[in-house]
């Protein structure tokens, strides 16, 4: 039985979205431009207008050609771009057939057919995946998350006469390669540049805009809400307040609990006992061993025995940095369940900051190393000058472990919200 596709409900387009949708038309004053860049705030309508315009341009301009579309990963592109794009196209009477094994979407309109290949641009190795293909155009979604090598390789594949390039992203740091090499050189690239804010998405209500504004802090607010290419500098968790976030007592029992681990060979190793009580997150105890201070390096077996003592004979799940492969193997050998942490740095920092801002994360006063690091966790200015967002690699072991645990277990918040909705609806 064929699945029924829900028709896409088009909202009125803003002036900037209409510019994106029409810049390539023969009567457009910028018809001769080779590239378009749309950057700015989240939820500002960039992706919807860029993806739809890219396909419409491709179908009007070519027949029987290959075109490319990319996100940070193929999975994220399918979820964030392709799913709504397919709905829009089908509502506009395009015929869309996805060939998942080939990571390709076959699109037909009137008597034309073109083939849109999907690529992921998550790291330097991604450039190898795009070699050899000839393209008539390329759409880069969230290009600021991609390495320059991948983008260079992809743009080099666009050798069909009349090819154009489409880029959209949320801002990063002011020295990011894309800002330096594309936005600041937009004239010599023969392109057009559009900066979006949430006001350019006419479907957002004031209430929804306010909700998004409350979700971000510091540099993330500047980038994702204001849409600025802003440097990450100074304290990372500048909202951390010992009077507010450090507590003398924690719940006697947690709905879910685990131990978060950051392991160092020459650097300190930290274990943080964390829990979720159905509403808030807590770090209730810590283990912290610095071999440089003691002058004695421990083996993975000794660290595992220390974990056994720290957990007092229990076997809670251990959330560990995937890079600590030898320690993970030892933990599992000794009967512990190990979850390899989701160690996405910026996303994890943003998540912990949101919990602190919302008053949903607390630290017991006995976690002295964690408290000290929360107050000193800083951005690496030298990395910023290379266009990279990284924390300074000092005084970061307990706080990195905390980030691993809280970000990896972030689904607990969604579970809580789902249960609340079910109770209100009478389903529970």
Automatic annotation (TrEMBL):
Q: Which InterPro entries match?
A: P-loop_NTPase (IPR027417), Phage_terminase_lsu (IPR006437), Viral_DNA_packaging_terminase (IPR052380)
Protein name according to UniProt? Phage terminase, large subunit
Q: Which organism is it from?
A: Sporomusa ovata
